[in-house]
């Protein structure tokens, strides 16, 4: 997609993102106790975070789901979050980048330029071996062409 197409599509893309943005939700608390604080649901920002690791053994435990930070695919399940992250990265990096590069590199000749050059070389080479000129005014021998007689043509207009 060219840059000009993206710039033309930008307003439509921006409108799509505006429909689903969080700015349409009023997250300001209306209680008198804390007028100027923002109110977020507990599932977005939990009030009590798990205690941070303190001992060397706790720091060494990297697989412990108690201290994991989600990649954003699954907020509750450690294994699903890691699995989806790895699958998505594998797909994006390996399949799209490597596969796309492979397809572009080994893409067949769509406009058949290679075939045209090969065919022209073979025809010119064969004509030179036969002792004929490389390019002839009469590609087909005029004696082999059967034209209609004037009587068969009648009043048909001939445009050359």
Automatic annotation (TrEMBL):
Classification via InterPro entries: NADH_UbQ_OxRdtase_ESSS_su
Signal peptide stretch: none
Keywords: Electron transport, Membrane, Mitochondrion, Mitochondrion inner membrane, Respiratory chain, Transit peptide, Transmembrane, Transmembrane helix, Transport
GO cellular component, one term: mitochondrial inner membrane
Cited PANTHER family: NADH DEHYDROGENASE [UBIQUINONE] 1 BETA SUBCOMPLEX SUBUNIT 11, MITOCHONDRIAL, NADH-UBIQUINONE OXIDOREDUCTASE ESSS SUBUNIT, MITOCHONDRIAL PRECURSOR
Protein family according to the UniProt entry: Belongs to the complex I NDUFB11 subunit family.
Protein name (Swiss-Prot/TrEMBL): NADH dehydrogenase [ubiquinone] 1 beta subcomplex subunit 11, mitochondrial
Taxon lineage: Eukaryota, Metazoa, Ecdysozoa, Arthropoda, Chelicerata
